[in-house]
Amino acid sequence: MLNTLKYLFPSAVYENELTAAEREFFTIFHSHRFPGGFAVKTKELSERDRQLLSLSFDLQHKETHFQSGNPEWFAYFAEDSGRPDSLSQYPSFRLYYLEGRKLYDNQSDLGETVQLYFNEPIRSVFITRELLLVLVPEQSSDDSSLFDAGELAGILAADLLLDVFIYSGRRVHAEENVKEIFKQEKRLFELSRSLFPKERTFQGYEMLPFVLPLLEEKQQQALYHYALAGLGKESELVETLYHFFLCNLNRSLTAKVLHMHRNTLQYRLDKVFERTGIDMKQFPNASALYVLIRKLKR
């Protein structure tokens, strides 16, 4: 049947052949005679074509115009537009990535549930119908509370029947290149999903040791600077952090090995936390940074 459709609509493909980004430009049809569904480029369909196809097939998306929910932010993250002024109101924040089918179709309930969960003045934007980007401001640089992605995924599954993959990014500061951080984290999310297809939630730093071998040297260096939030240029700080790991996170021993006062050591460790938001007491975070620094520090 697809060959027949291709004769009429050259762009016709099976639905499962579409990437998340391509789905924005296709109209999707389902039928019991066509279990997998098929799609045709929206611009290739006239209104009469759509009506005729709808007689035999179910139209998945009735609306043809994709609305991101935040045009200014969509233009910044998904297109080549300038940085929105509204980003400057958040001194530091984290980006969370929610991906799954039917997110866009349930955007009202999804937005309300996510807002209630974080209990913060969040901002969100649909990058595609299947990818929602959520910005959550951090009220204090000393806030080390951990976001439980598994809990949120469970709530969305139980309350909205949504199967969602969630990726948690690192602490971001307003003066950083947020678009580049978004691209880096989105790529990490994609690689993490390919490595662990059965997992539903991913924390950025925990994935670093697994993703690193998949990257070329230039990409590894970019990941190194991303992970250290710009602190990679401060060789003295990186060296301190490296010895802290070698001393099994023992502050007294590290200060002794480096011949420095314990307060000086604490100041440097606090600086790392302030920039990255990494809790060094969490083994996955500490081990990930150790692997990254051990391999890539210059």
SS content category: alpha+beta
CA radius of gyration is 23 Å
Q: Which of globular, elongated, flat, extended, rod-shaped describes the shape?
A: elongated
What pattern of helices and strands is seen along the backbone? HEEEHEHEHEEHEHEHHHHHH
Number of helices: 12
- Number of E-state strands: 9
N-C termini distance = 58 Å
Mean pLDDT score, rounded? 86
CATH topology (level 3) name of the largest domain? Alpha-Beta Plaits
What is the number of domains? 3
- CATH hierarchy class name of the largest domain: Alpha Beta
**Biggest sheet overview:** 5 strands, mixed
Strand order of the largest sheet: 6-7-5-8-9
Domain PucR C-terminal helix-turn-helix: 237-292
Protein name: PucR C-terminal helix-turn-helix domain-containing protein
Organism: Salibacterium halotolerans
